[in-house]
Amino acid sequence: MTSPIKDTILSQLAAVPAGKSIDPMSVAKAIEPERWQRLLGHVRTNAIELAREGGIVILRHNKPVNPEQFRGVYRLRLRMEGDPTSFEDAAEGGEG
Question: How many CB atoms are closer than 10 A to CB 59?
Fold first, then answer.
């Protein structure tokens, strides 16, 4: 089941070159240009759902992050080969 927010996220990501990311603010502004700020929480929730499904990754400092644990400013990108699909290793300090 999709929502207008998920559809907007996916259509904006389809329009950028491979490996490029989008700002969640652009998604909110595309849906509600006048009152986009009130949509930011919904954009975040939908982005987390898409990341859980494996379609996109959430980036902080241009690195994929665990969709369950990130905070602060983030960007969205389509999943690419080599992106982590699980974050247990990262939570334990990475590879030893």
Answer: 18
